[in-house]
Specification:
Layout lengths: L26 E7 L8 E7 L7 E11 L1 H8 L6 H11 L12 E9 L11 E5 L10 E5 L4 E3 L6 H5 L2 H13 L7 E5 L4 H12 L3 E6 L4 H7 L3 E4 L12 E6 L8 H7 L2 E9 L9 H12 L7 E6 L3 H9 L6 E5 L2
Parallel strand pairs: 8-9, 8-11, 9-10, 11-12, 13-14
Antiparallel strand pairs: 1-2, 3-4, 3-6, 3-14, 4-5, 5-7
Helix pairs in contact: 4-5
């Protein structure tokens, strides 16, 4: 599996605990989102470590990611239609995120469990999709046992594990929703994205014939992941003559389009369908994490990591992801 990395870039100084802060709880490092805006609204500070309630587990986070949803939340989507911005802020917070610590992915060890927790024990290695609870950009977070949390795949590093759930859950949901099965012709638009790299592998795991649409320079990655055919949206305006698809799945979002995308969406077999990761808001259950765990441990789904950053470099990580040119995933290590 090819991986891409970049030398670390040190960004300024870490935030220190405020002199007037008084607490009986231990402190932890966290990237605090001070308001909607550019990556620089994120500041590293020391804050109070959370305590688990009876139905919660305390996770010592070892790795997280920066994905498109994270920078949407942080930025407040200034270029989006007014209705879209309003709906997002009603869910997340009007003037700033209600949860000061953002981040949708948390991978680490169970540090402590509440009195009512049955499925998890101290020391378990877990992964979680935190939804509106957020909290991934910190050394610790609490999640409910009933939430989207599960035992993590074995045999992988924390960083490799973190690179799977965001795109993996999206890809799994929309491929299963479309009923992908052996022999189906599946075209994946934006196949080099986090969801796209997972969708290529999962669609092949389900037995589909996969056509990956990506930009120049990503074709070899697509073939390595199992794609049967690769189309370059910058040089091709239509699929091969006579090509028809059972499913055209947009894995990057409707804000990006091209002549090739439009043509592919019209190249459907009878009964074929077009779908997008922008369609709906999936719940992403713990059961789906368990499905991904099984596929990972079978070797059918591998992490694709573009760059790795430390928590101290969270501003630079967001700046890079916001350019929308990443291959696969950007991982944040929280040591």
């Amino acid at each position: 599996m090819p991986m891409w990395s970049a030398p670390p870039v040190v960004l300024g100084t870490q935030g220190a605990a405020k002199p007037h802060m008084r607490t009986d709880n231990p402190l932890m490092r966290a990237a605090i989102c001070t308001g909607y805006g550019p990556p620089e609204v994120l500041h590293l500070e020391k804050v109070e470590r959370p305590r688990p309630k009876a139905d919660e587990l305390l996770i010592r986070i070892r790795a997280s990611t920066v994905n498109s949803s994270d920078w949407f939340i942080r930025s407040g989507l200034p270029s989006a239609p007014a209705f879209t911005r309003m709906m997002m802020k009603l869910m997340i917070g009007i003037r700033r995120p209600r949860k000061r610590i953002i981040g949708l992915i948390a991978v680490g060890d169970v540090e402590e469990v509440g009195a009512g927790v049955k499925r998890f024990h101290r020391g378990d290695r877990v992964w979680a999709f935190t939804k509106f609870h957020l909290g991934g950009y910190a050394e610790y977070t609490c999640v409910k046992e009933s939430s989207s949390v599960g035992l993590a795949p074995v045999g992988l590093s924390f960083e490799d594990i973190a690179a799977i759930p965001y795109g993996g859950l999206l890809a799994l949901h929309y491929l299963r929703k479309a009923g992908v099965k052996p022999g189906m012709q599946v075209l994946l638009y934006g196949a080099s994205s986090g969801a796209g790299t997972a969708a290529v592998q999962l669609a092949k795991h389900f037995g589909a014939v996969v056509t990956a649409v990506c930009g120049p320079g990503n074709g070899e990655l697509m073939r390595t992941l199992g794609a049967d055919h690769v189309l370059d949206y910058t040089t091709q305006t239509a699929p091969p003559q006579g090509a028809l698809y059972d499913l055209v799945l947009d894995t990057v979002g409707k804000r990006k389009t091209s002549a090739l995308r439009v043509a592919c969406e019209h190249a459907l077999r009878p009964g074929g369908r077009v779908s997008s990761v922008d369609d709906g808001t999936p719940e992403f259950s713990a059961a789906e994490l368990d499905v991904l765990k099984d596929v990972v441990e079978r070797g059918a789904l591998k992490p694709v990591i573009d760059r790795r950053y430390a928590l101290e470099e969270i501003v630079e990580a967001h700046r890079y992801v916001e350019q929308e040119h990443k291959k696969g995933n950007v991982v944040v290590s929280i040591n």
